[in-house]
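hi!! sorry for the late reply, been swamped w classes. u asked for the two structures so here they r. pasted raw, havent cleaned anything up. first the sequence of the first protein and right below it the tokens
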Amino acid sequence: MTTRASEAGPAPLSELLDLTEKVAIVTGGANGIGRGISRRLAEAGASVVVADLDDATATELSVDLAQHGYRTRPYQVDVAQDEEVRELVRYASRELGGVDILVNNAGIFPAAPLAELTPALFDRVLAVNLRGLVLCTKYAAEAMIERGRGGRIVNVTSIDALHPSMVGLAHYDASKHGAWGFTKSAALELAPHGITVNAIAPGGIQTPGVAAMHGAGPDAASALDEFERRIPLGRLGVPDDIGKVALFLASGLADYITGAQVVVDGGRLLT
């Protein structure tokens, strides 16, 4: 997918944003941020595998997108399970012809202060947020290399990969710091194969998961309200704010970008 600069001049914008003939896998692609990403990639012409543990919602989204003329397939997967991830990549290659774009979006963020953090909760957060990202990258990259067309890998990290956003997310922050470190190392390793690896670091985004945190108790709700008050642009983000950046990194507009992390937080880190 990554191409050398052409002596004929720059490609037209319509061509740079055209993902027709590309196959994308979006993990956690059925809800929240993943839903926004799946929609934008499908709109740009990609065949999108909506990979999610929530099979019913993945199927619902795929049916909805198909009604708009977009090509999507639902696929149920637990990204923390090695063999399930292998089969996900095999499915995309077998049914759709290969993998050109991988968006590692699947993630969980159950809040818990250190005094209440159990080994089981820590292990589950790391399994989904970091182990899953590593497994998906490993097997998708193998498929991309075998196919010989390069590729794009986009990891959804968090502003917590750069700075803590609130108390109670130490385990989540550890997973996202790991995801950012892995992104840079993988970018270096995969660049010779024409595969770019970048990250998006969202700030507060209006998703079902964030809504659930508001109902998790007065302390969580108060922390979220304070977080929102400190956003310079004056609002929480929406999934499409991340979807548009994912499309940029997956498109020809980002041919010469790898090992980068794009912060999409309404200016929150500035405060």
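now the second protein. again sequence first, tokens right under
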Amino acid sequence: MNKTSQRVERETLAGLQRLSRRGFLAAAVAAVAGGGMWKWLNDRPAVDGLASPFRKAMELNAGISRRIFRERALAPEFERSKAVSSFRRNGDIGLSEIRPADWRLQLVGVLNPASYAQYSGDVSSWTYGIIPSDTEAPNPDVDSPPKKPTMHEYDAKGAAVRMKPMEMPERAHADVPGLLLTMADVQNLPHVEMVTEFKCIEGWSEVVYWGGAHLRDFLAAYPPLNGGHNLSSGIPKYVGFETPDGQYYVGIERDVALHAQTLLAYELNGQPLTPDHGAPLRLVTPLKYGIKQLKQIGRIVYTDGRPHDYWHEQGYDYYAGL
């Protein structure tokens, strides 16, 4: 190697070393700045369980989604052959195995509830029977393990589930008048079927074949206090849903409740729902992520106040729309 080549090599190496030092210093400065910014963001006052800058970002995204939303716009629908034969089970908060005869849908906020045969002066007094557990105590003389316990067996304690008192302004401990509806009342509504994509906020999705009734048909059959049968203007801003034990709860906006693809579903792949998927009745809408599509509805509430929402209280976006 001649002297010129050696000089060029030395200069190149020296230049690379300078660049490496600068890059390292720049990266270190960026890391410190980024760490400081992240700490500052997380130290901001919490709003609904989330640091305020992150909550504001979520609210901005939700506002954009609401402005884009069009009631007549439909999510893609598919041929039945595209639906999964075994829908993925995900999430069991609030689920219990309830005897079908013991289930009632508590409806609160309906117009003239006392005029219905299903009227109750206090819907919250209804209890839901629990299917007895098939759990067996371990037998020291047998080498096999005990049977698997049923869902939420330890919470149910072999008795019954009673929904927790609903938080109502100024009447938190008063009786809750409304209707106690049976599955027959829901199934008397026009039956519809839908094959749409179910999207989970965790990032997975599956095409699912549902059967049930339009929520808007339910609203027309059991209209709210201030609406009568004028669905376009009389429905309150929100519809709230809770499981029979009150452990899981969500709220959806009026436009979503009236949408043509929002169902009270009681069938999956042409068969009645199983306990894993929310038997006997669940909410289904391709406009929302799965965290909003509550399984095993125990109570529906018509309200102008935004209902409480389980995952929103854990820091997620309330709207949770697609």
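hope this helps!! also noticed smth abt the second:
The radius of gyration is 27 Å.
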